[in-house]
Amino acid sequence: MKFSTMKPIVQLIVGSTRPGRVGPSIASWAKTIADKQFPELDFEIVDLADYPLPLPTFETQPPKNAAGVYTQPETQRFSAKVATASAFLFLTPQYNWSFSAVLKNAIDHLCVEWNDKPAGIITWAMRESDRAAVGLLPILECLRMPVARPLVAINAGFTVRDEKFGLRDPATDFVGYEPTLIEAVGQIAALLKEKSS
To answer: What is the set of domains in the chain, with CATH numbers?
Structure first.
């Protein structure tokens, strides 16, 4: 009997596409820590800016979407990418006390590709960002995705911004969030190990 030597893929889904966004910087910060702490997993950044998806209509999201049957090339391409993952870290800014519309649209475009796969949540805002996670949680639960705890809620306010309003130095400024991130990814690793046993 042959066993696969491929490492499970954990995709970091960057759920922000606005100009001036800091999502890619936060994803890079999280990936650097996860790569070091969990060498048994393969972490991959998937930026939604690279996967533009139309807003849902009957043409772009026919009923067969729920079964993984897609007619739109954009959805087919996104589906093929997401299907390679065993778990996810969803990264989203907090907008108006919720998570981003582009992330909701991306999640809604697929179904079976998310089902039953572990997930973690990383949010950020100018102050507390836990409300974004609160909005995202029931959607992931609807997709039968076990959500790792704790949730990583980052304060990305003025004290961590540079003169162009980007992030100054996540490796230094976010050091206090590292234990929370490591604990959450550790739960994902444990869930994946449990599924494979």
So the answer is: 24-196 (3.40.50.360)
